[in-house]
Amino acid sequence: MIDADGAQLGVMLTSDALRIAQQKELDLVEVAASANPPVCRIMDYGKYRYAQKKKAQESRKKSAASLLKEVKVGSQTSGHDVNFKVGHIRTFLGEGHRVKVTVFFRGRSITHPELGKAMLDRIAEKVSDVAVIDQHARMEGRSMSMMLVSK
Q: Is the peptide bond before 38 cis (omega within 30 degrees of 0)?
């Protein structure tokens, strides 16, 4: 038996423990039912549940989920524009986000998916010092995409 203050009261009958808990206007909570004899604790159960809920809420707040950011480029995008997009990718990765790089194909450019693959390879090479490829390039309809995560 453990008191609300954390002091051990020793082995006692359940009726005695219940009487002590009622005198202190607290709850008798079974902590380890499988132990022989079972271990119980005198505590304010409502206050305990509230503290557990707040602790879980605080841990969820600190572990903010990483967002998925998407950067789109065309298969014929110029070098300067690609460098500009690479700057955005570096910023997103620095903030801890995952980045989906998508190359879209317009009109007849869909007949040359190797240009899109080359574009994605070029971008992956430019950010290889801060990122690794999480998901390699694959076609999704009229676009090709890959996923990057920070090292």
A: no
Does pTM top 0.90 for this prediction? no
**Averaged pLDDT of the chain:** 89
R_g of the chain, CA atoms, integer Å: 30
The single-letter code of the amino acid at 144 is M
For CA atoms 3, 8, 13, 16, give the dihedral sign: negative
- CATH code where residue 108 lies: 3.30.110.10
pLDDT digits (tens, 9 = 90+) for 64-85: 666 899 999 998 999 999 999 9
Q: Is 81 within the bounds of a domain?
A: yes
pLDDT tens for 94-107 read 988 999 999 999 99
**The total number of residues written for the chain in this structure:** 151
Q: Would you say residue 82 lies in a domain?
A: yes
| Tally of structural domains, the chain | 2
Does residue 86 form part of some domain? Answer: yes
Which distant-in-sequence residues (6+ apart) come within 8 Å of 149 by Cβ? 93, 98, 99, 131, 132, 134
10 Å CB burial of residue 148 (0-12, 13-18, 19+) is buried
